[in-house]
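hey
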């Protein structure tokens, strides 16, 4: 069985947290919060993996994963994207990786 997980923890993508703890502007924090439930910030984890990850900062947690994990979950390998201030760019890049993977596996839907 699998559990749905927010790659960048939902709790860290609250406007107040982003502004107060990470120094983001209100506008940037609102943009990040608006993207937190997008498919590109979600993954399926086993209950054990999800418990290990919990609300750990993504930048810290991802360094504990294998190359196979990155490939299986279509995680961008540019570690610059793992900083919370670059979350919108992470979402954009992961959406691109998912799109490319679907097209490679299933071809065009036209």
């Amino acid at each position: 069985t699998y559990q749905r997980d927010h790659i960048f923890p939902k709790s860290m993508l609250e406007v107040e947290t982003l502004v107060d703890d990470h120094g983001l502007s209100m506008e940037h924090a609102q943009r990040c919060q608006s993207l937190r439930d997008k498919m590109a910030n979600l993954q399926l984890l086993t209950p054990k993996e999800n418990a290990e990850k919990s609300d750990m900062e993504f930048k810290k947690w991802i360094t504990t994963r294998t190359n196979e994990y990155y490939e299986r979950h279509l995680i961008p390998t540019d570690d610059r994207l793992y900083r919370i201030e670059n979350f919108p760019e992470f979402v954009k890049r992961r959406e691109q990786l998912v799109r490319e993977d679907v097209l490679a596996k299933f071809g065009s839907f036209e």
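The mean pLDDT is 94. Helices lie at 15-22, 26-35, 47-53, 58-61, 67-73, 87-106.
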